Amino acid sequence: MKSLSTALAQRHQQGLYRQRRVMHGQSSVHMQLAGQPVINFCSNDYLGLASDPRLIAALADGARRYGVGSGASHLVTGHHAIHDALEQALAEFTGRPRALLFSTGYMANLGVITTLAGRHDRIFSDRLNHASLLDGARLSGATMQRYPHHDMAALHTLLAEPSTAQTLVVSDGVFSMDGDIAPLPQLMQLAHDSGSWLIIDDAHGFGVLGAHGGGTFEHCSQPHSDNVAVIGTFGKAFGTSGAFVAGSDALIETLIQNARSYIYTTALSPALAHATLVSLGIVRDEDWRRQQLRSLIERFRRGAAQLGLTLGESTTPIQPLIIGDNARCVAASERLLAAGLLISAIRPPTVPHGTARLRITLSAAHREVDIDRLLDALSGL
Q1: CATH architecture of 20-47+287-378
Q2: What is residue 97's DSSP assignment?
Q3: DSSP secondary structure, 11-62, as one string
Q4: Residue 25: how many CB atoms within 10 A of its CB?
Q5: pTM for the full predicted model
Q6: Where are the domains of the chain?
Q7: Quick check: 199 and 168 in contact, CB under 8 A?
Q8: How far apart are CA 358 and CA 79, in angstroms?
Q9: Residue 372, CA distances (Å) to 7, 305, 309, 345 in order
């Protein structure tokens, strides 16, 4: 049996060891770490809603109305009226016939993929897809082939191979480590022409992209289609936690009947569903948050270019600064922390070998002075 201690020591030597940080105070862009104030540049709270007083009040109100826990799975006694209301609001928000709540985005991705694909089917996955999409494909037992990132010609060739199998095309909407946006119109056309399902994980697109925060589909002006399943999460721009799948009536009913990660788990807290319903209204109506976010992104990228820093091709809040070497990346993160700036060092296997990076994420709650302070610190790396 391989020694666990030896394996952990190897991770240390390779610059891959992960450690948790204990944060204090409300989740926001200004927090306390080890008794010291830090500016948080690694949160996914893109619209600054995680500590919004309206959501805090809604969560407390939801607990008073419905209790804290749901008490059971959705198919036993855990599906409350507030869950139903949130699902209906999400369907309207996404322009889909129906939506279905899941406890986490990971569980939603596993549920969709393992329900739609089996041992004799084929899954074509973008090489940079989120780990949960890859794990769903592996768990399904289907044959998975990963096409080069954004390479629609390669995907077309794969889809053109003769087969009687069910096929799934799977992609992030906004890629979580690179911040770039999937070529959605081409993906939809290829999926339609080949008779394939298209699965889009838009966890980092909802709330951020589109005039009303409708995500990658609104950003790319793509309508609903029965062969499309779109996954969203609440733990990013919505400021709460949980997830949903939106799609056709037949898709949602099939997931209710067959998705193991939906059937065999306790339902999302009804109090949290109540708070998320309030958050959904804020995301939809307060476009000034997206405008503020876009302004900060442009300011940061402009300043980074003036410093000669090479960022990824991203117009979203995710701004990767590629370092390459694992140890150098960790050292850069630690120097920034010493300057009061919290930025995660992202290393393999989360990203490909040789592409360790500082994953800088911006929020509408940041101020221009925060961006300028970040740029000043990066100029000294």
Answers
A1: Alpha-Beta Complex (3.90)
A2: S
A3: HHHTT-------EESSSSSEEEETTEEEEE-S---TTS-TT-HHHHHHHHHH
A4: 11
A5: 0.94
A6: 20-47+287-378, 53-285
A7: yes
A8: 41
A9: 41, 13, 14, 20
Task: Check pLDDT > 90 for residue 24.
Answer: no
The residues near 297 (Cβ < 8 Å, ≥ 6 apart) are: 315, 316, 317, 319, 362
Residue 161, SS3? coil
CA 359 to chain centre: 14
Residue 20 confidence class, pLDDT cut points 50, 70, 90: confident
At residue 337, what is the residue type?
L
The pLDDT score that the predictor gives to residue 187 is: 98
Give the count of beta carbons closer than 10 Å to the beta carbon of residue 42. Answer: 16
Instruction: Report the alpha-carbon distance of residue 49 to residue 224 in Å, rounded.
Output: 28
Query: What is the spatial distance between Cα 172 and Cα 129, in angstroms, rounded to a whole number?
Result: 6
The predicted model gives 30-49 an average pLDDT of 93
Q: What is the DSSP letter of 69?
A: S
In sequence order, the 6+-apart residues with CB closer than 8 A to the CB of 213 are 206, 207, 237, 283, 284, 287, 290
Catalytic residues: 176, 204, 236
User: Does residue 211 contact residue 202 with C-beta atoms inside 8 Å?
Assistant: no
Among 283, 228, 260, 218, smallest CA distance to 45 is for 283
CA dist., res. 89 & res. 92, Å (int): 5
Class of domain 53-285 (CATH, top level): alpha beta
d(CA 15, CA 323): 13
The one-letter code for the residue type at 196 is S
- Reported in sequence order, the residue ranges of the chain that DSSP labels E, i.e. its strands, are 23-24, 30-33, 36-40, 98-102, 122-126, 143-147, 167-172, 197-201, 228-233, 243-247, 318-324, 341-342, 344-346, 356-361
Q: Can the peptide bond before residue 183 be classed as cis, meaning omega within 30 degrees of 0?
A: no
Convert the pLDDT of each residue in 209-238 to its tens digit. 999 999 999 999 998 899 999 999 999 999
Count of beta carbons in the 10 Å neighbourhood of residue 53: 7
Query: What is the rounded distance in angstroms from the CA atom of residue 243 to the CA atom of residue 228?
Result: 17
Name the strand (E) or helix (H) holding 4: helix 4-13
Cβ neighbours of residue 308 under 8 Å, at least 6 residues apart?
none
DSSP state, residue 78: I
